[in-house]
Amino acid sequence: MIKIKEYVMAESLEQAYELNQKKRNCIIGGMLWLKMGSRMVPTAIDLSNLGLNTIEENEEEFSIGCMTTLRQLEQHEGLNSYTNGAVSESVRSIVGVQFRNLATVGGSIFGRFGFSDVLTCFLALDTWVELYKGGCIPLAEFARQKPDRDILVRLIVKKHEDKSVYLSHRNSKTDFPVLTCGISLREGQIYTAVGARPSRAVCLCVSEADWKKKGSEALAGELAAQFPTEGNMRAGKEFRSHLAEVLIGRGLKQIEKMQEV
Amino acid sequence: MKIQMTLNGKKITEEIQPGMLLLDFVRAHGCKSVKRGCETANCGLCTVFVDDKPVLSCSTLVARVSGHKVDTLEGLQEEAAEFGAFIANQGAEQCGFCNPGMIMNALALFRENPDPSEEEIKEYLAGNLCRCSGYEGQLRGIQQFLAYKKEKEGAVCR
Amino acid sequence: MQVVGQPVMKKDAMALVTGKPVFTQDVAPADCLVVKVLRSPHANANILSIKTDAAKKVPGIEAVYTWEDVPTQRFTMAGQTYPEPSPYDRQILDQHVRYVGDPVAIVAGENEECVDKALKIIKVQYEVLPAILDFHKAKDNEILVHPEENWKALCPVGADNKRNLVATGTSGYGDVEAVFKDCEVMVEETYHVKADQQAMMETFRTCCFMDAYGRLNVVSSTQIVFHVRRILSNALGIPKSKIRVSKPRIGGGFGAKQSVVAEVFPAFVTWKTGKPSMIIYSRQESQTASSPRHEMEVTVRLGAMKNGKIRAIDVYTLSNSGAYGEHGPTTVGLSGHKSIPLYEGSLEAHRFSYDVVYSNVMSAGAYRGYGATQGQFAVESAVNQLAAKIGIDPLKVREMNMVREGVQMHSYYDEVSNSCALDRCLERAAKMIGWEDKYPARDMGNGKVRSVGMAMSMQGSGISGVDVGSADIKLNEDGIYTLAIGAADMGTGCDTILAQMVAECMMCPIENVIVSGADTDTSPYDSGSYASSTTYITGRAVEKACRKLQERIVQEAAKILDCESEELEFAGDSVKRLATGEEVSLTQIGTSSMCGSINALEAVEDSSSPVSPPPFMAGMVEIELDKETGHVEVLDYVAVVDCGTVINPNLARVQVEGGIVQGIGMALYENIQYSPKGQLRNNSLMQYKVPTRLDMGKLRVEFESSYEPTGPFGAKSIGEIVINTPSPALAHAIYNATGLWFRELPITSEKIAMGLLKK
């Protein structure tokens, strides 16, 4: 169990940032992962009162506060209609409603967890991370970085008439995924993110023209070969690579179907 | 640190350890229906409402819910008995250890979606584990309760 | 029948659904010391030194105990009738630790914080020894799990600690090899079932305190209060007269709580300190230091003719008891004795032999099915494979060979099957699932295949000649009854089921029956709730006690009416004099028995059975299998059970449903994985995935009852049989979808998909 010595409900991001510069202090998201560790936290920093628990939508983008829960993501009509339900699909297998009422999008993304459905899904979209000091950077870049002492304030998802899909494979329905796959088509490019490899998700991009030329199945095989996989207690490397091909192939076909409509 | 909350309708102001979890807090306040079944937020036994939303009290800091409203099954006894009787009528309560959490979450479902489909029921309650019943009897109980509610409300309308 | 056979609501149901404080932790004294255990990080090691001084100085710490502080006599934690078949190989704490998780020290303190702190600063120096992590290599290995001289086995089960043997043996009928020689078809395969966890929602927990008489009171979540008393007496070296054990409501057991997993630690603390104490196992401890299923590898040789007639079965089981021998010698027996008899309709010969070995992994215990589950996965799979091999419908093969009523079962202690509706179960289940249309499979055209699979099962009803059930029933004022039992309701509803039997016998409403649960001070002796014994064994005791009490009530009425007992008839709420029409009410009798009476209106009866009549069951499943991902979606599971007379259809049905879902989890994804150092990685509900309600399809349960002449109201058991069919039925359905046999559980999507790729 985690031990917390002091708890601060931050009154401003600046205050939170300053407190967070001390190495052992930490910002608490949904607490679900954090509480399982056995670390001693001198000061736990809570961002709950900074109005960062909403999803805002305008013509250009969705702005998702870091304290937004996975359940809010799941139920947000605008976001789900824009992503063809991919966002909802990416979180609905995560344990249960009570869990998703606590887990935050900031915690999920900042943790850069290998198993993260959320990271995989947003990687395929045109997602940016707004950092308190570091400004806005693409999610892909953020995901590659090592965790630092900055604060993830918001996720920004830019709108482009995307066609998106999310798929995962699990040993049982609410288990961690064996493999995750998010695909998004926008502005003539196919973005394919594969996670739970079991290391964290990465995203590859090919042109729509290339896809059409090769066909979904061939492209799926080609892409799958480029995602490195390993084994862990949920499945072996070989099966993961096989699944990558299967899920990418299925995802591409689903996007094809969306185009037909 | 000092916190205050409304627990089952009662205002509480108290000095607590900053790391205290809501599960331990409500149990210390006599809400023994709230159980701990795991350390990994997987079982749903500790479900309580914070501002009417079902959450896992094992993963919620008391500090964080300061100023908020918390409800456990102890505060929802009438609803629990009314709905619980339908579970009991199936024999699906079995050992009963998971029941409070499941009933809390089911009540949350009924408030959010008064007419859920079978699939919606299963999805909403997926985070409530039960090792005795095989879930099927719980499902029967839930569906019969919903039918009873519908009939009751229909009768009122008429 | 008025009450028996009715779907009566459980007596404790409303308290449970409204969350009343009725479990061990809820009823424990407020000022209990917190007890926790320091556990070994090594699979096999000797403790060279333990430094506890600093830990003892942590403010709030009451005591720290190590192997140097505990009695040295060995005991077993298996909740079995004395003399226990399980070897005496335990100490409360031992200098030699034998698996990752073996207790090293006990810490008791005022609160969790100080106990955790103390646990962290205990310094242990280990001499790490080579470990046996592969149970195939255990027998006659030079590494000995139990080299100690004071190890002992009380029963002649073939145990030998110098060979790492917990038990070994062989039994049979006829000349198996000769019959095999004459067979046209042979199936010979080996099947592997892992050490699955019961994973009941309430982990192990016990609280202890000293009472006004200076006795150790133990309140525990246990299925076996009387065995706990004996085991604690053995472990602590104190007389049984000094111990009282009772159980409140139990949050699930499934056999896990048929071993003394947690009780010894707080019992030792309270006995030593005189202070109340409590231990609550974490889920991690419950997963890694408890009493799971015995891992078994079962080799089946089956000889048959091309027409489908099964002539001989040979079963060899290698069972892994882990670091200690609890339930090792007995579970293994069921892997043969409850799988082979399913085919006694045609068998000419059989042989069953086994070895049960020690190894350096968590020790096993009792888990619903108790070896039958492992054996039936093997034998039922082999029969399904035989059917595929000779191209005959597996339904037909079973109809041709299965045990039927009146058959003498040589492989089941020569018992005659006096009640058996297995044939009707199979026929009905086939009809329910639409076997004729759906067998073997249909390609859905989208990469998915729908297929069906089947299995049969049997279990026992109590342990013949061993289990004792008992009932103490008395009449009170107002004509109400109190039933005292030593059987343990663990959610199964036996308090209610036994009360139903009282209500039926005494012709009264069930509300007039108060049930007083297991307490070693006040309950009549009962071996406890395990081995599918309570309805059958204790139920019979209830029947007998009711009959006796009726006689006494009639005698009391005869005194009041001043006539002979023979003139009277017991009529439920009164006793009637047939000739005159006079009657005396039960209230009057109850009241008069409390004034100047010398006739106690109370009756105690024991029951034990020379036979253990098997319940029978057929389970069939329809799945949809994704050929690319290997995912198996359970669509529909039908089960038809013959448990004799169904005492409470609701509770029986939920037993079946619950057992099937546990069985589905075991078949498809509940996994046991050890690290190379012997650490169990499935140490939480995050890493050991039990089924959620999204993981099972539709369950449909029906009953086809036979009438068991030796059972109460014709009843047999139901508690365990229900977990047995999913593994073989699912393996069969997966074969029918893919053409691949899987012989190791769980059958994960990875195994299926990779199997198909390599095909």
Structural notes for this entry:
The complex is a heterotrimer of chains A (261), B (158) and C (759). With 261 residues, chain A is an alpha+beta fold. Chain A contains eleven helices and twelve strands. In chain A, helix 9 (208-214) packs across helix 10 (216-226). Chain B has two domains: 2-74, Roll (Ubiquitin-like (UB roll)), CATH 3.10.20; 76-157, DNA polymerase, domain 1, CATH 1.10.150. Chain B starts with a strand and ends with a helix. The relative contact order of chain B is 0.15. Chain C has 19 helices and 29 strands. Chain C has a seven-stranded mixed β-sheet with strand order 3-5-1-12-9-10-11, sandwiched between helices. Chain C folds into four domains: 25-131 and 199-288, Alpha-Beta Complex (Aldehyde Oxidoreductase, domain 3), CATH 3.90.1170; 133-196 and 292-402, Aldehyde oxidase/xanthine dehydrogenase, molybdopterin binding domain (Aldehyde Oxidoreductase, domain 4, 2-Layer Sandwich), CATH 3.30.365; 418-459 and 613-759, Aldehyde Oxidoreductase, domain 4, CATH 3.30.365.10; 469-607, Aldehyde Oxidoreductase, domain 4. Chain C is an alpha+beta fold and 759 residues long. Chain C is globular. In chain C, 27% of the residues lie in helices and 24% in strands. Classes of the chains: A alpha+beta (261), B alpha+beta (158), C alpha+beta (759). Chains in contact: A-B, A-C, B-C. At the B-C interface, helix 2, helix 3 and helix 5 of B face helix 1 and helix 17 of C.
Q: Roughly how much helix do the residues of chain B carry, as a percent range? A: 25-40%
The CATH topology label of the largest domain in chain B is: DNA polymerase, domain 1
Rg of chain B, rounded, reads 16 Å
Oligomer status? heterotrimer
Radius of gyration of chain A: 18 Å
Mean pLDDT of chain B: 96
Number of strands of chain A: 12
Helix/strand order of chain B: EEHEEEHHHH
Low-confidence stretches of chain B: none
Strand count, sense and barrel status of the largest sheet of chain A are: 5 strands, antiparallel
Category from helices, strands and their pairing of chain A: alpha+beta
**What portion of residues of chain A belong to β-strands?**
25-35%
H/E series of chain A: EHEEEEHHHHHHEEHEEEEEHHH
Outline of chain B: globular
Q: In CATH, what is the class of the largest domain in chain B?
A: Mainly Alpha
Number of strands of chain B: 5
CATH architecture of the largest domain in chain B: Orthogonal Bundle
Q: Which percent bin holds the helix content of chain A?
A: 25-40%
Number of helices of chain B: 5
Give the total of domains of chain B. Answer: 2
